[in-house]
Amino acid sequence: MDSKIPKSLRHFTKRLFLVSKVYADREKARMEVYEYLQKMRKSIIRMSLGYSDIDRLKQKIDNMARWERKYSKYFRPEDDEKQQLREHINALEEELGREREEKFRIKSEQEERIKELSDSLENVKHKMRHLLLEKAKRHHRLKALEHKIDKGVDRKSYFGS
Fold it and tell me: Using CB atoms within 10 A of its CB, is residue 71 exposed (0-12), middle (13-18) or buried (19+)?
């Protein structure tokens, strides 16, 4: 079933799934940081803030930064090397397309030439059959004429035997 789905559509859906998952996780991490900051504000007001709270906030900020990096990698501009490689691939694909067209043109010309030669051979066969038929008719007439001559002429008297 996988072979019936075009490769470009599979790539698109896979990429869409990955981006949406990273986006959702990024938003979740951001919301956790904001919620924890609100909790810390309340703790500051009550003066019940401890060192573990700061460590947790640092961990949540690091987690959010990690998800931001993952999310941003899907939307960063391409560097020059990637662009050059893409251009090279496009040029090779165009060259391959031209080669295929040339191959198709040559194949078509060869098929046309083969058809012409086949038609020519068929005409020669037809003429040969016609000539063989004419030869057979002539041979038949010649035999009939010889038979008539043999019947009408007495060979013994003609040759004097």
Answer: middle
